Amino acid sequence: MKKLFLPTDLEAQIRGHCEDNYPQEACGILIGQGGQVTKVIPSPNLSATPEKSFEIDPALIIHHQRDCRAGSDKIIGHYHSHPDGQAVPSTHDHAQNYDEALIWVIVSVTKKGAQDMNAFATHDGQLVHMVISTQK
Ligand SMILES: [Zn+2]
Asked: Domain tally for the chain?
């Protein structure tokens, strides 16, 4: 099983953003390299139905693609939350066109706060579970 290295401070940043947006879905970009997240960029959720889907600001993606070109880090994935849902891909998530290179992080949030966090890699058009590790 593939591993995603997510330092505890970045994990906390994702959880905090997902809690702040509850009961709407939060979303953002994961920057890094080699399965290691080095930076988390929160995005506004541009979806017309943010309580049940997410859309990362495309301008933010373009900005960070350009930003990353100079260094070795790049956009390696994205995260979003499932308010009062499970930390697994929804039917809507499965219907997205997958970019094979991108890692998905999904966080379940309730009114008590962020709960489970799971990571998925894309393989043969499926989202496959990854192990999240806080250190490399
Ligand atoms: Zn989802």
From this structure: 1
pLDDT at residue 20, as a whole number:
98
Q: Which three-class secondary structure state does DSSP give residue 14?
A: helix
Return the number of other C-beta atoms located less than 10 Å from residue 80's C-beta: 25
- Residue 55 located in a structural domain: yes
Decide if pLDDT at 70 tops 70: no
Ligand 1 center to residue 25 CA distance, Å? 8
Q: If you measure from the C-alpha of residue 70 to the centroid of ligand 1, how many angstroms do you get, rounded to a whole number?
A: 31
Q: Does residue 94 lie within any of the structural domains?
A: yes
Its domain, for residue 45, covers 3-69+82-120
Domain presence at residue 135: no
Beta-sheet pairing, 27-33 with 103-110: unpaired
Confidence at 53, pLDDT banded by 50, 70, 90? very high
pLDDT of residue 47: 95
